[in-house]
Amino acid sequence: MTALVQARQDALAARLAGLPAAPGGWQAPARAAASARLAAMGLPVRRDEYWRYTDPAALTAPQPPAAAIFAPGDEEPAFDGIDRLQLVFVDGVFDAAASDAPDLAGVEITRLADAGADIHWARDLYGVLEARGQTPVARPLAALNTAHATEGVLIRVTGRAPRPVALVYRRSASDTDAILHHCVRVEAGAELTLLESGPAAARFCKVIEVDVAEGGRFHHIRTQGRDHERHAVTHIFARLGAGALFKSFTLTANGRLTRNEAVIDLAGEGAVAHVAGAAVGDGGFHHDDTVFVTHAARGCESRQVFKKVLKNGAVGVFQGKILVKPAAQKTDGYQISQSLLLDEASQFLAKPELEIYADDVKCSHGSTSGAIDDTALFYLRSRGVPMRQAQGLLVLAFLAEAIAEIEDEALAEDIRTRLEGWLNRHTG
Amino acid sequence: MLTIKNLHVELEDDGKQILKGVDLTVEPGTVHAIMGPNGSGKSTLSYVLAGREGYRVTEGSATLDGADILAMEPEERAAAGLFLAFQYPVEIPGVGNMTFLRTAVNAQRKARGEPELSAGEFLKAVRAKAASLKIDAEMMKRPVNVGFSGGEKKRNEILQMAMLEPRMCILDETDSGLDVDAMKLVAEGVNALRDAGRSFLVITHYQRLLDHIRPDVVHIMAAGRIIRTGGPDLALQVEQSGYADIMAEVQE
Fold first, then answer.
1. What's the Cα-to-Cα distance from A95 to each of A89, A184, B122, B228, rounded to whole Å?
2. Of B231, B165, B199, B216, which Cα lies nearest the Cα of B28?
3. By three-state DSSP, how is residue A240 classified?
4. A-B interface: how many C-beta pairs under 8 angstroms?
5. Which residues of chain A have pLDDT under 70?
6. With contacts defined as CB-CB under 8 Å, which chain B residues touch A399?
7. What residues of chain B lie within 8 A of the CB of A417, using their CB?
8. Nearest to A398 among B50, B79, B94 (CB)
9. What is the DSSP letter of A268?
10. Closest Cα in chain A to B50
11. The model's pTM
12. Which of B5, B1, B209, B224 is nearest to B87 (CA)?
C-alpha cells in the first residue's frame, strides 16, 4: 500500500468516525454498496481532476468548520408568498411540529427515517442513481451520503401536485453537520414542483435522486441564502424517461463554500433537462457548479445556464460537461457559463466540456467573464439613475437569462424580489 | 440656460485635444443648432456636457442656470434638467424598456424631492406619449433598444425625453440613419416639447433635420471651435456650398 492510499484511508476513517451507524432495513444493501464505493474512491482531494478549482478540505474534515449563526434581519422567508406544503428540517433532523401535514393529492410523502420495508419504489431508487452517477467521474461525498444519511424524504408523485412541496432547512447551532438524502419518483405524466431553502447546518451534504418517468414533469427551485459562513455540497442525480421534463434553478448568495453538482441522464427519447444557476458572491465566497449531462437517447434537449456575479475576491467555478452517446442522434445541447466580475480581485474558473459520439447533433457552449458594461452604465446614469442603482439593474439584467429558466412566473418573481433585496443590502 | 465658456477638452487616453475653446450661450426657450464636418468635436461636446468618462476638461466652464455641471455626476446633471439624446442609443439586454424608463423617471423625481409616480400614473403617462411617437406596447416590453431598428431607437430616445421633461435637451445626430418619414416623426416629437422654458441644442451634420426642427440660432463648429454663428440661413448656406467655403472664409 502506498503512502498516498494510506493517507486517503486514514482521512476517510477519521471522517466516518464521527458519524452515527447507518440504519439497516431495506436501505441496507444500498448503504453497504455505497460504503464499498466510498472505500474504493476515498474522500476527494485537491489533486482529483474535478476538485482542482475547489478545495474540498472543509467538506472532508472530521469536524465541520464553525459557522456563526446568521441573522437574516427583516428578510422574508423564502417563497413566503407561494402556497406550498412545507417540510422543515432543523440541523438536518425532520421537525414534524414545524412542518405541514404531508397530505397532498397525488403525492406520497414519507420520512426516510420512518420508511418501512413496503416502500418498494424507493428501494429501486435509493443509491441507484447516485451509483450510476459515479461513472465516469467519482463523487465520493455522494457515496458517503448514501451510506450514512439517516434523514430525508421520499416523495412519490402519481398525479399533478396541486401545490409545491417546500423543503426548509433551518439551523440552530454553529457546529452542526447535516446529511440529507431525498428520493423523488415522478410517475408517468405526473408533475411536481420542489422548493428548497435554507442553510441546513454549518456543514451540509445533500443528495437528491430524481426519477422522472415518461412524460413526467419535475421543477426544482432553490435558494441558498446569505448565511455567510456555512459550507455545503449538494448533488442532484436525475434520470429522465421519454418525453420527461426536468428543470432546476438555484439562487445562491454568499456562504463560505458551495458546491452544487447536477448529474443528469437523458435516458428516454425526447426528454428535456434544463439546469440553471444565479450566484451572487461577496468576499470569502467560493461557489462551484459542477454539471454532467448525458444524452443517451435520441432527440433530447439540454440547457445549462449559469451566471455568477463576483466581488471583493469572491471565486466562481463552473465545470460543465455534455456527453452525447452514439444513440443520441438529434441531440440539442446548450451550455453557457458567464461571470460578471465587479473588481479585479474576483475570479472565475470555467471548464466547459463537450464529448460527442453521435454525428447528427447540435451542441453549443460558451463561457465568458467580464466587467460591467461602462457604456450601459453611463446610459442609465445619463437618464438620472444613480450609480449603485444602475449597477444593480445591470447585475439583474446579467442574471436574467438564468432566472428565465423558472417556468412559474410567481416563483420567478419571488426569486427576482429576493435577489433585488440582496443586492440592495449589498450595495446600500 | 446653458452657458459654455472657453471650453477646452482633451482625451484622457492620449491627451489629444478635441475642444479648443468653445463659447456658447443657449437662452431659455430657444433652439440652437450646431453643424460641422466630421471630427469637428460636436459629439465630444455633447458627451462632455452629459458627463461621459474618458474626457478631461483642461480649461473653461459649463453651467446650467448658473450651476457648474462639469462638477456633477451624470445622474446629477440629469436631475438638474440636462438630457442627451444619443447618436447611438445603447442596447441593454435583460432590462425591460418600461422598467428602465420608470426607474429613470422616479430616480429623477426622488433626486428633486418630488414623490415617485405610482405604477398606474406612470403607465398612463407613458402610453399617451408612446402613442404619439408610434411606439407600441410590444416595444415597451422588450429590453432597452435590443433588436430595435435605427428609427425605433431614435424614437425611444425622444420618448425618454418626453417622459423625463428636461429643460436643456441635447440631440446628438438624431437624424443619422433615419429615412425621411422616421425623421419627420422624431422631429414632430421634438417640436411637441418646445416651450418657453425648454431649450434645445441640436447637433447635426446635415441641414435636412433643420427643415423639420426650425432653429433660432445656427453655429458652425470646426476643429474644436465655433467658427461662425448666425440665423437659420447659415444652415442653408452650408447645404448649398458645404463647410469648406465657410472654413476657408474664417481662415482668411
1. 5, 20, 47, 82
2. B199
3. strand
4. 80
5. 1, 425-428
6. 94
7. none
8. B94
9. S
10. A382
11. 0.88
12. B209
